[in-house]
Design the sequence.
C-alpha cells in the first residue's frame, strides 16, 4: 500500500508492506498548509470519474495507492465575508490565519485562485450590485460603505470587472 499525500507531508513512511488478504493500518494524518486532512481515497481512473473513500478494514488483495483528500480551510473567507465593509489588510488576514504575510498570500492564492485584494474587490462589487438592486440607494453611497473612497474608483473597478458602467447595469 502506497500513500500519496497529494501535495501534503507525511510524517512517516509513504508505504506499507501488507500480506495478501491482510489489512493496512491508517497512517498518521498528513499535513498541508491551508488545508485540513479529510480522508484517504483510492481512484479507479485517476480521479476522472470517481474517487472512493478507503476503508482500512478492507483486506488488501493487490497493490493500491491511497491519496490524501484535502479540505481548504475557510476561516479567512468567513472573516472576509463578515467584514466586507471594513478596511481589510493582508497583515490582518495573515494574523487571523496564523501565517506570515508571505505564506498567507501564497496559500490564499493557491486555494482561492485570486489574491486577497482581488477576492475582496470582487465580493464588494457583488454586494454593492445586490444593494443597488434590493435597496435602490445611490451607487456612490453604497460604494463608500464598502470601502471605495470615491465614485470614480468604484466605477473604474466595476467597469474592469463587468465591462460596462454601473449606470448601464442598473438600467
Sequence:
Amino acid at each position: 500500500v502506497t500513500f500519496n499525500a497529494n501535495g501534503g507531508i507525511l510524517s512517516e513512511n509513504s508505504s506499507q508492506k501488507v500480506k495478501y488478504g491482510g489489512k493496512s493500518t491508517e497512517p498518521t494524518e498528513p499535513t498541508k498548509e491551508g488545508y485540513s486532512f479529510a480522508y484517504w481515497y483510492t481512484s479507479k481512473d485517476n480521479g476522472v470519474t470517481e474517487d472512493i473513500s478507503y476503508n482500512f478494514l478492507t483486506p488488501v488483495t493487490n497493490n493500491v495507492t491511497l491519496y490524501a483528500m484535502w479540505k481548504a480551510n475557510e476561516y479567512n473567507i468567513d472573516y472576509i465575508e463578515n467584514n466586507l465593509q471594513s478596511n481589510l489588510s493582508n497583515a490582518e488576514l495573515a494574523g487571523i490565519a496564523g501565517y506570515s504575510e508571505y505564506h498567507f498570500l501564497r496559500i490564499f492564492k493557491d486555494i482561492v485562485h485570486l489574491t486577497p485584494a482581488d477576492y475582496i474587490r470582487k465580493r464588494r462589487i457583488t454586494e454593492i450590485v445586490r444593494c443597488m438592486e434590493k435597496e435602490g440607494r445611490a451607487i456612490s453611497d453604497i460604494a463608500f460603505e464598502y470601502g471605495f473612497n470615491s465614485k470614480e474608483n468604484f466605477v473604474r473597478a466595476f467597469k474592469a470587472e463587468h465591462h460596462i458602467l454601473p449606470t448601464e447595469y442598473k438600467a
Observations:
- Strands lie at 2-4, 35-43, 51-53, 65-72.
